[in-house]
Amino acid sequence: MNRKTLFSTLIALLLCGPAGAQQNLVELFQKAKGEIKSSSWADALKTLDALDAESQKPGLEAQRKQLEPALALYRGVAFANLGKSHEAKDQFQLYLAANPNAALDSGTYSKKAISAMEDARKEMSKSGGAPSLAAAYNAFHVSASDAKEPPSPNWADGPVRFLLSADEKKQWAEAKDSVARSEFVEKFWAARDPSPGTPENEARREFERRVAFADERFGRGETHGSVTDRGMVFVLLGPPTYAGRKPLSTGEDSSASQGLTTSERHPTDVTMMQKSGSSTTGQIAAAEDRNSGPGKTITDASANGWREVWHYRKELLPAGVPYQQVDFEFVTKKGYGENVLQRDSAAVNTIDTARQKFKPGVPTS
Questions:
Q1: Helix ranges (DSSP H) in the chain
Q2: Count of CB atoms within 10 A of residue 117's CB?
Q3: Is 189 helix (H, G, I), strand (E, B) or coil?
Q4: How far is 248 from 263, CA to CA, in rounded Å?
Q5: Contacts with 352 (C-beta within 8 Å, 6 or more apart), sequence order
Q6: Which residues neighbour 178 within 8 Å (Cβ) at sequence distance 6 or greater?
Q7: Is residue 43 helix, strand or coil?
C-alpha cells in the first residue's frame, strides 16, 4: 500500500458524492495527506477528525464506507509516530479488518508505524480477525442531533441510574411533569459538564455514545445492553485496555482466572465490522465462521459456560482509584446467569468512584 495509490483511488470515490460536500471531502483528505507527508502528526489528526465529521453528513453514506479504512490507516500512522501505541494499534486493527493482507511500505512509513501495524495484526490473529472492543468503539458513530426528546417518566430506570446519587433519585421522583423533568435533566448533566464554558457537554455526549454502543453490542433478548452488567461497566469506564475469555471447566470455582486468552471471540465483533462498513461480506462471513462456528449460540458455545475478563490499566481508570490495573470478571453459567459481574472489592470500589467522578471528555489543553 502506498500513498499515491490510496489517494488516487479515494479521490475518485469521494467525487461521486453530492456537489459541494464532495469537494469538502476531497480538500480535507488532501490536507490530511499533506500533513501526514510532512510529519505534522497532531495537525493530521485534527484534519482527520474534521474529515470524519464531514463524511457523516446525509447523502455521503457510500463515500463514508469507502473512506473509513483510510481514516483508520492515517490515524494509525499519526498515533504511532506520536508514541501512542495503544491508539495506533486500535486504528490499524480497523484498517486490517477491511484489508487483511495489507502491509506498509518501509520506504514511505516509519518503523514505528510498521511495528504498530504488525502488533495489530498479531493481536487480531488471536481473535479470528475481529477488532478489539476499543477498536470497534473507535469506529462506532452516533448520528448527532440537536433535538432532545423530553425525558420520559422512566428516564431514571435506564442506564443513567448508574450515575444518579440518592439525593438526585429523590429529586427525580418529585418531578411530576415534563417541564420539571426537563429542568432536572439539564441540571443533572450541567453538574457533570467537564468544560461548562463550551457549547457542548462532552460528558453527556460520551455517555450517550457509550449507551448506544452497549445497547447494540451487549443486548440480551429484550434487555437493553446498556443496563446489563457489561453495559454498566462499559458506560462508566468505556472500553477496556484488553479483554479475554475462556471456557469454565467442570467444577471450576468462579474465582479462578488462570488460563485466560487476551482475545475476544464474540459474534458481535463481526456485526460491528459489518455496520461500520469496514469489511467486505466475504471477510465478515469468514470471521463469523472463525469466531462463532456453525450452530454455536450463547448457550452451547461452552458446555460449562465461560468467564470473560475486562482488563483496565491505570490510564483508563478514574482519578482516585488506587490500583495499577482492575479486572472485571463476567461469568456465564447455566443456572447462574449470563455475563454476571463478579463483585470483588476492586471492581466495586472502581465502579463507585466512576459513578461519583463521571466527567469523560475533560480537556487536556
A1: 3-14, 21-37, 41-55, 61-81, 85-98, 111-126, 133-138, 166-174, 178-190, 202-218, 229-237, 267-276, 281-291, 345-356
A2: 26
A3: helix
A4: 16
A5: none
A6: 150, 151
A7: helix
pLDDT digits (tens, 9 = 90+) for 218-272: 998 889 999 999 999 999 999 998 888 888 876 665 544 444 444 343 333 323 3
323-357 pLDDT per residue, tens: 999 999 999 998 999 999 999 999 999 999 999 99
SS3 at position 298: coil
Task: Sketch out the chain's domains with CATH numbers.
Answer: 3-126 (1.25.40), 128-365 (no CATH)
Q: Determine the Cα–Cα distance for residues 144 and 227; give it in Å rounded to an integer.
A: 22
Measured between alpha carbons, how far is 304 from 308 in angstroms, rounded to an integer?
13
- The grid coordinates of residue 278 equal 469496514
What pLDDT digit, counting tens, does each position of 119-171 carry? Answer: 999 888 876 667 788 888 887 877 655 456 678 899 999 999 999 999 999 99
By residue count, the chain amounts to: 365
Instruction: Note whether 67 and 56 are within 8 A (CB).
Output: no
